[in-house]
Each structure stands twice: as structure tokens, then as C-alpha cells.
Amino acid sequence: MAAATTSGNDDEVSEVDDLFSRFMSEVKEIEKRDSVLTGPQQIERLTRPGSTYFNLNPYEVLQLSSDVKEDEIKKQYRKLSFLVHPDKNREDSERAQRAFEAVSNAHVLLLDQDKIKKVNEILRRSTCHGQGKCK
């Protein structure tokens, strides 16, 4: 009977893993769709309620994968900083300034090798805890 219980738990874990994988796939699709947002839409994305926590992940702020190369970081930073720059968004300059600061902070963080190692470790741990597969 214990074997049946263990098998049942394995099935539940497998189902949870599958659901989590599907959820993450959906999130990635949304992120991909959002990567073509206009300046005001990017400002909204970076300043909406809860963005303080969202903006802690520099990859999310710049809409990049964690295996990105330095030249792509710089390219994406230039693109987003132009879109959200307060001088380009005078009608919403206060929120544009906050969005611009989030983009700038993410850029600086991703180019600092010591800090990004810590960020990557935190992200790795949070991902493995979410999937229940930490080592």
C-alpha cells in the first residue's frame, strides 16, 4: 500500500511540474507579446502596482533571458531607455522618470559581473523552489 501512495505522490508532483511548465510557457508568450509595447505601454508595465517587486529582476525589466550576451543587454537598454525617457514622455514625466530609472538600474546591474552572479543565484533558487527541484 505504501508503494501506491508513493506512486500517487509522484503523479501529483508530475502534474504540478506539468502545470508549472505550462504556466511558465504562457508567461513567456505574454512577455514576448509585451516586448513590442510602445513607450507609454512600457511606462505602464514598469510602474504598475506591484512593479517594485517585479523590477527587482533586471532580466524582467529589460525583457531579456538570463543567458543573454552583453551586446544584447546594451541594445535592449538603448531601445527601452529611448521609449521610456522622460523627455520623450512629457505628458507623464513622473512615471516616465521612474520607468527610466528602473531600466537604467537593470542595465547597470546586468553589466556588473559580481552583482549579476548573486542575482542569477537568487533567481536559480527561486525557480527551483517553485518547481520543487532544489539541489
Automatic annotation (TrEMBL):
List, for all copies, the residue spans of the domain called J. Answer: 57-124
A Pfam family that the UniProt record links to this protein: DnaJ
Give the transmembrane ranges.
none
Q: Name one GO cellular component term.
A: nucleus
The record ties this protein, via InterPro entries, to: DnaJ_domain (IPR001623), DNAJC8 (IPR042858), J_dom_sf (IPR036869)
Give the top-rank taxon of the lineage listed in the UniProt record for this protein: Eukaryota
Cite the PANTHER family for this sequence. Answer: DNAJ HOMOLOG SUBFAMILY C MEMBER 8, DNAJ HOMOLOG SUBFAMILY C MEMBER 8/LIPOPOLYSACCHARIDE SPECIFIC RESPONSE-7-RELATED
Q: What is this protein called?
A: DnaJ (Hsp40), sub C, member 8
What species was this sequence derived from? Desmophyllum pertusum
Which gene name belongs to this protein?
DNAJC8_1
